Automatic annotation (TrEMBL), chain B:
Record-given protein name: Fibroblast growth factor (acidic) intracellular binding protein a
Gene: FIBP
Record Pfam families: FIBP (PF05427)
GO biological process terms, semicolon-separated: platelet aggregation
GO CC field: nucleus
Native species: Oreochromis niloticus
GO MF annotations in UniProt: fibroblast growth factor binding
Amino acid sequence: MPGKLKAKIVAGRHLPVMDRASDLTDAFVEVKFGNTTFKTDVCPKSLNPQWNSEWFKFEVDDEDLQDEPLQITVLDHDTYSANDAIGKVYIDIDPLLYSEAASVISGWFPIYDTIHGIRGEINVIVKVELFNDLNRFRQSSCGVKFFCTTCIPQCYRATLVHGFVEELVVNEDPEYQWIDRIRTPRASNEARQRLISLMSGELQRKIGLKVLEMGGNAVVGYLQCFDLEGESGLVVRAIGTACTLDKLSSGSAPNTNTHMHPNTAPASNACNSPSKDGKESPLAHGCRSTHNSPVHSVCSSQRLSQNFSVSVPTLIFTGMGSGGSAGKEAGPLRTLLRQQTQTALEQREFPFFTLTSFPPGFLLHVGGVVSARSVKLLDRIHNPDEPETRDAWWEEIRQEIKSHARALGCHAVVGYSESTSICEEVCILSASGTAAILNPRYMREGCLDIGCTDHRFEDPSPPSCGFCHIPYDELNMPFPAQLTYCYHCRRQKVPDVLFTTIDLPSEAAVAGKGCLIQARLCRLKKKAQGETNATAISNLLPFMEYELHTQLMNKLKLRSMNALFGLHIQISVGENMLLGLASATGVYLTALPAPGGIQIAGKTPGDLSNEHISSIQKRINDTIAVNKELYQINPPELAEEGVGSPIPEPRHRSRLFRSHSESSDELSELDLSHGKKDAFVLEIDDTDAVEDIHSLLIDAPPPTGFYSCNTENMPGISNWTSGVQMFTSVRVLRLSNANLTNQGLNKIFTDLCENLLKSFYFKLRSMIPCCLCHLNFTVAVPEEELIQVTVTAVAMTYDKEQTQEKTAEKPVNKGSLEAEEQLQFPLELCADSSSSNIQTASKISGVAESTNISPRAASVDYGSFADRCSTWLELLRLKAHTIRRGSVKTSRRTQSLAHSVSSLERCSPLQEGRSRSLRSSRSFGGSSVTVVKMTPLSFLPGIRIIKYLGIINMFFIRETTSLREEGGVSGFLHSFIAEVFAMVRAHVAALGGNAVVSYSMKECVFMENPNKNQAQCLINVSGDAVICISETDQESSASTANTGQTGGGGTDGAT
Amino acid sequence: MSVELDVFVGNTTIMDEEVYQLWLDGYTVNDAVKVRMEGGVMDECEASKDVLLSDTMDQYRTFQMCERLLHSPAKLANQLLFQIPPHRQIMLIERYYAFDDTFVREVLGKKLSKGTKKDLDDISAKTGVTLKSCRRQFDNFKRVFKVVEELKGPLVENIRQHFLLSDKLARDYAAIVFFANNRFETGKRKLQYLSFQDFAFCAGQLISNWTVGAVGESSIDPSYNMVEDMDVDLDKEFLQELKELKILITDKDLLDQHKSLVCTALRGKTKVFPEMETSFKNLSRGLINIAAKLTNTKDVRDFFIDLVEKFIEPCRSDRWTAADMKLYLTHYTNSAHILDTFKHQVVWDRYMGVVKSCIFKMYHD
């Protein structure tokens, strides 16, 4: 019995009237944990009952503590008939299970009913007493911290980044069980809510175990998703990045990310190979041979497995793609899976990171976006305890990602995420990330043996441009790309355009401001069943991806930008169509060449529509000019060059820097494949193309005073003021049946997204000047003729006056600051190492260059449309190939994997010293409500996070049988979303917090049946509950920030 | 192609004051959109009509969801569903409970019953206030009435605390409750010239001087302060005592003495002195008779009409100015103190104090 859970029911308020005769309620409460239930006394005839119950005590395993929620049910006592349920509260007690977080949960919780919504509130106190766990073979993982935040959380520093952790659990969906036919909707919804709560608890525990096994103490970038597979079951899966985090003392600077001292790693690292790290870290910088030393078992196995895994995907694909009956597949698949398991054990995990922003110096080079999709046919999950089919699917995708990354010369994938789209029995699995080379000092087992990148470590690049430098070999480029020397340091090659899924590194040098760029696409598809359907979908996918990329590229050029960050491509499947939505934040990186213009060309030179073409050309040129103005893109070297006029790249310029490059051969090869084309050419050969161009120009720029992005940081804006408004918006469009064409659909879909943005701008106009950050669009096709778009974002105000100054000064400030910080640690690390001196020296020189950009760089390199095309085509062809081969599969159960992980020998170092102190003063009287701020970002402007209280991960179902009475579908969903917000805020407040960061709405599944006057909606939200305080030295935020901590005196609602 | 569902929910509830007012005024969504378009809000953010429609619908929904909470404003402060900054909460409440003077003028003194509610469409047609707005205002009156009916303690304070209203608005509601409770007649043609604010002022005077609570303020016993309905019902004892004032008109000597004292004081000070002199007895009889009859509920209801008929109209026909009126009433009240045989000074002051200030307020065109 390693834990004792205690709960006390204090009072209720605003209860609904349950007895029409007396207009009152006789309420009592059932408190349930696991199989134990306690009841309070009935508080007769009151809508504001005071129970003041005793402490209900549950003695439970800590495993259960992690899995189970505390269930509180409020009921109306009825002497003659069954007691009526008023509603429930589920309390996730996980935040109480690790020492640094909350010590007590106490506060007013909305009483929630799946049919009626929120019905009053209940005041509850919950505590946990944990005994030291002596069982080394335990199944619990108490003490592992979880963060949704995709960067190293404020007030922590990462001493070690262990890598990728993933897990999934499956179960049958209660709603699809036979019993559901005789259950009430309420019972069915509650069964589902409870099951998902249990499953996510279990999932988190299992991930925690993996983290402990790796020697970590936290999961950052924790991303949990549900797949509602309908009849085939319910999958809850999660990925994250295991880390060892150290809490910083509260006195230290808020900007903790820079405090990553790699040399502290061995000290705090209570894991498998402590001694090796000690040796390795200081040397890693200059001398790579250590990693190949045979004593370093982890590393060598990693190397081995890497070599091995190259061939694995091929194996898998041939094995699985052979078609025919699934029974036959089982054989080879089985052995294969076994092999994979072995390798998985050897190599531990994929070199994937769910983080999107990193401490300076962590990210060395970025290769580009890697993504993989696969279409699967769902089949019933026969045995929930062995979810290996789904595991294998993801394994396969991850392998593919990994091989793509390797093709880009990268050993790691950052900004990694996974998603699914399900329609009936077809499921599209997607994974994407950014191939990258990381600084191995931060990883115990970073893949350190990629020969081709050797020189990069020896010749470190300045932080403001280093990540742009190509990681792949110029001789064996994975795809044709146009390379030039970095416009910053002139030493390394950079591509003409860079796409990534991560956030803009804080040290990156940019010109002007960023902006949200979206590509939207609809593709009609015939209705079909089973394999035919899956084949049709997988045939469409590559074309969709290609078009999305083309759109993105065009729009990027149109804005005169050259890089995309936070790229997220979602492909959603419906019965008769596929929707594709790509969102990213465009930015002008000064290290990359300036983008060329867009040139319109008719099919034949002497076309009749020549005038038409020239008018379009003019419009495009005008738009580019306007956009440059709008986003303040004035890189110094571009000053006197017209964008529309393509200037061929002077070839001699690149030779100027030849001394830096390896060989002249490769230069000539480079010249052969590129350099002859000028601007981006759009050919108008049919009406489609005209439409495309029109749609290109349709995107309205945000109104004056607004900017938008989908990343954590808005490029070019950093002087935030205190105004923060998080919002969720849902719009569902019903298509009329008549004459739907791809073009028409595209237009409709584009308008839908554009109108949503326009609505946001209008609604938030009082916040001008303001930026919409982290705009996260999710599309779905809930029914045949419906398109649903869900958006969550945050609007933040900024100081317009300061912006101007700052952008001007920015490169200088940033650079020098960076240099200082960088100076600190390498010197500290290995003061006698000459390489570090070189590094710092080069950094300083890099800074000098960035601030004072030399006129040599004046020539511009223009991308060529044709080349671009072939680039993507090439990649897509590759992708399509694998997709097609791996596409249609009827999943069957295969032999069980040796899935369980070897039991842990070590307890978490955090087990001891669990001290709990009751928070001093929290009023239960509840006169005023704590203000809880919410944001999808990892930070709040002007506010410092002093404590992370644990993750919030909540799942709700709401159903109605009186849709019209609740204000129709909009009224129903509006109140449900408001209720979800309220419940999140209440839980955070009860934990003692005053804000939620990294908030996201993972799922918003809406179903309606207006004829029956019914609707149902499922929402899953998550985020990190935090305590934050205003940075007192920042005058702007002082007024609004500290509201949460003091439960100031308001008036009590005496009735 | 049609928008099936469209919602926008902010963590901090977004409310546009202009739209709130349109909602309160009972505009339909489409009418509200028209008004907003005419107001030029579209130019602000390059918005289109669709954007405006979507925004208006969202806001209307939000207000509808909030309405339940606004019915007991104290709940708004500690509900969890909407995160609304305190100053916004105050705005929401204050505006929700605000009313049109033209509307309230129509129902002032009427019983707040279902019957009256049925007549609201007539009132709506007459006043130009939309029926929806009329209903809200009427329901507000009724709600406040119902709540304070059961509460002990000072009326204005109760309203202010219970409905979190500003002092001004709480006083207006106190007047409405007071009028509804005593069913003062305000609808007669002769009273039409009086505004709600005139009546509200008079109600304030009556509440603070003629009710049980008014005595309580000066009372030593604090428990006396908490009598039920203390501010809503007139002090019965006082009304009885008012009968004693009759001596001023029944006793011939006293009447003459009073008249001569007043006339002496007024002589030469006003142009309308002759008229004052001739009508003194009539006016005095009028005022004292009103006082003497107040024990009758029916006559209480006619208090204002009586004041107008018996005093204000005669004076007006004699073309008294407001200053004349003030002068006359001041001397009329003060002279009674000098009368040796008149023993009811306290009651006299309590009566005349209110009557004086009511007449001052009501004496206009």
